[in-house]
Write a structure and sequence with these properties.
This protein is α+β, with helices and mostly antiparallel strands. The longest helix is centred in the N-terminal third of the chain and has 18 residues.
C-alpha cells in the first residue's frame, strides 16, 4: 500500500511549493488536444511533471502512445477513440500491458508523435514492443490524500489524476484562469493536478 505523505513529513512544504509551482508551470507545454485522448495527455503530463521535480527539465513524452496503451488496458485493443479510464494510464506507466508483453513507461513524443495514433491492434503491439520506453517517474501510487495532505504531497513531487464533467466555468484572475463552477453532467474529462499556486493568500490547485 502507498504511504500517505503528511505535512509533518515535508519540512517547509509551504515555501517549497510556493517556489516550485511557478517553475513547473513555466516548463510545461501547451496542450493541443485533437482527439478523445485527454487521459493519454494526462498520463504524459504527469510523467513530465515528475521529470521536472527530479531532474529540473522535461523531455516531452508521447500523449498518443499513452492513449493507445490505455485503450489496450481498458479494452484489449486500439482504435475506438472513445476515451480511456484514469487508472489505465497509471497501470501503463507502472506495469505496462502485460497481456501483450508490452513493458511499462512511455516513449518520447519525438519517437511516437501525436499524429501516429494506431487503429490496428496488431500493429500497435508490434510498434510498442520495439519502442524505446522510458521508465515512469512514479515511486508509489494510491488513492487521493485528504486535503490537508494533498498540498504537502504536491510539494514532495506527487501528482493527482482526476476525472471531471466537462466543461466547468472559469474566471480570469490575472494571467491565470480559475475554476469557478463545476459542470454536473456531460462528457467526462481527465486532468492531472501537478502543483499548486499561492495567490492572494489562497492555494489554487493547478490542473494540466
Amino acid at each position: 500500500a502507498a504511504q500517505v505523505v503528511c505535512a509533518a513529513d515535508v519540512t517547509g512544504w509551504e515555501e517549497r511549493l510556493k517556489a516550485y509551482g511557478p517553475k513547473l508551470i513555466a516548463a510545461m507545454r501547451d496542450q493541443r488536444q485533437r482527439m478523445n485522448d485527454c487521459e493519454g495527455q494526462t498520463t504524459a503530463n504527469s510523467d513530465e511533471a515528475g521529470q521536472f521535480y527530479l531532474a529540473g527539465s522535461i523531455t516531452q513524452m508521447s500523449d498518443i502512445y499513452a492513449y493507445n496503451g490505455s485503450e489496450m488496458i481498458d479494452r484489449g485493443g486500439v482504435g475506438a477513440n472513445s476515451g480511456a479510464s484514469i487508472q489505465s494510464g497509471v497501470i501503463l506507466l507502472t506495469a505496462g500491458v502485460k497481456k501483450s508483453g508490452i513493458g511499462p513507461g512511455l516513449p518520447t513524443d519525438l519517437d511516437w508523435p501525436y499524429d501516429s495514433y494506431e487503429t490496428n491492434t496488431k500493429r500497435f503491439i508490434e510498434r510498442a514492443k520495439g519502442a524505446a520506453l522510458k521508465p515512469s517517474y512514479i515511486a508509489q501510487q494510491g488513492p487521493p490524500p485528504e486535503w490537508d495532505n494533498l498540498l504537502p504531497s504536491l510539494a514532495a513531487g506527487g501528482r493527482l489524476h482526476i476525472g471531471i464533467f466537462w466543461a466547468p466555468k472559469f474566471t480570469q484572475m490575472g494571467k491565470y484562469y480559475v475554476w469557478s463552477k463545476n459542470a454536473w453532467g456531460g462528457e467526462g474529462h481527465a486532468l492531472c493536478i501537478i502543483t499548486a499556486l499561492f495567490i492572494e493568500g489562497q492555494w489554487y490547485l493547478v490542473v494540466w
